[in-house]
Amino acid sequence: MIHVITSANSAQNTDLMEQAFRLRHRIFVEEMGWSAVAREDRREIDEFDDEHAVHLLAVEEDDVVGYSRLLPTTRPYVLSTHLPQLCKGTPPADPGLVEWSRIGVADSARTSGRRLNPTALAILTAIVEWGLPRGLHGFVSEMPTSWLLRLLQLHIHAMPLGLPQRIDDVEIVAVRAGFDAQSLRRLHAMRGTTASVLAPARGGIIRLAS
């Protein structure tokens, strides 16, 4: 299940968030070599992990096995603050758009082959399932160029915001992606079920901070 954690329920989910920050450190610092965000406590946390962040945690038997973060684009976010060179123009600012970043899956939940990883698919489904009722219609993200086709196959309407650039030896492109009810139906079809991926909220009503 995907747990959605914001400032409204973070106090009830400190154990899961501790796992999430340590998972981020393993993926982004230890595996991907992001030395600039390394910390001695082995928790990967940055300036955007504040009251405006929405954390999506894939949890299996109380273990966090996947993670990503949503940030409102009406405030400073990763693309607009640190990677504006990936955009041909001004990075988007739209209350219906969030930034999807820090996308990672634990080694124990990774799969091989051409099919989308089930944990990553569940997280993407959660964005659409959770976002549509809250007025979201899309996201911006910085991702490997190889992901573009996969998004289109999932009926996520992705368009580059600029030309790809090599960052840490990976060709990265900034995209603006739109989703709707058709996207959710396609995601359900890919998962083989219409059952919700969202776990029941623990500790309060979860809203998108603005």
UniProtKB/TrEMBL annotation:
GO biological process: quorum sensing; signal transduction
UniProt entry tagged with the keyword Signal: no
GO MF: N-acyl homoserine lactone synthase activity
InterPro entries reported for this sequence: Acyl_CoA_acyltransferase, Autoind_synthase
EC number: 2.3.1.184
Keywords, comma-separated and alphabetical: Autoinducer synthesis, Quorum sensing, S-adenosyl-L-methionine, Transferase
Gene3D superfamilies: 3.40.630.30
Reactions this protein catalyses: a fatty acyl-[ACP] + S-adenosyl-L-methionine = an N-acyl-L-homoserine lactone + S-methyl-5'-thioadenosine + holo-[ACP] + H(+)
Similarity field: Belongs to the autoinducer synthase family.
Record-given protein name: Acyl-homoserine-lactone synthase
